[in-house]
Design goal:
Blueprint: H1 4-7, E1 25-30, E2 35-43, E3 49-58, E4 66-75, E5 80-85
Antiparallel strand pairs: 1-2, 1-5, 2-3, 3-4
Length: 100
């Protein structure tokens, strides 16, 4: 049986803190080239995400991007490559590409 002093020692802290993004819009990049924007409603330790009002952006080569509404979406953790907040971030030029 654990004492009250030992209970705090077994808690794990995750490197990625999604709690601050709950109920805000996020951009999720998935394996296979899929990209989704939606409102993060929930997440777990396995990186599974639940998004509401999700909209997928499809890009294929040089064709113009198309979007489709998905509604509520569950993104499986192994498929998630990146998660960015929609608000509070900005797109910059790639500093590693030669401009010449």
């Amino acid at each position: 049986m654990q004492s009250s002093a030992d209970k705090g020692k077994n808690t794990k802290e995750f490197a990625i803190q999604f709690d601050k993004f709950v109920n805000s819009s996020v951009h999720v990049k998935l394996s296979g080239g899929r990209q989704v924007v939606g409102i993060l409603r929930s997440h777990d330790a396995l990186f599974n995400l639940v998004l509401d009002d999700a909209v997928e952006t499809l890009t294929r080569g040089d064709e113009p991007a198309t979007t489709r509404r998905l509604g509520q979406l569950i993104c499986r953790g192994p498929c998630v490559l990146a998660v960015n907040p929609v608000h509070g971030s900005m797109q910059i030029e790639n500093p590693f590409i030669d401009k010449e």
